[in-house]
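Board notes (copied after class):
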Amino acid sequence: MDKTKLSVYFFLMATILYATRFISASIGLTTSKVWSEDEFVSYLSDIPDSLMFVTLTTLGIGLILFGWGVIENIKNK
């Protein structure tokens, strides 16, 4: 599989993981009686930092694969 095509899957995974943080905080906010930005930030801070670490790692792998694939395509032409 081409590295640039594989990088698209890593970008997609990073996007889904990033959105998961906000979806999880929104689900927690539904039980609250007050909906405000401060309340949302409070629920967002309850999400483990490891999720953001995995998101950034996945994004980094995608960027590396994309750059590597582009360099290979330039060298092959």
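Comment from the instructor: The chain has three helices and no strands. Residues 3-71 form one domain.
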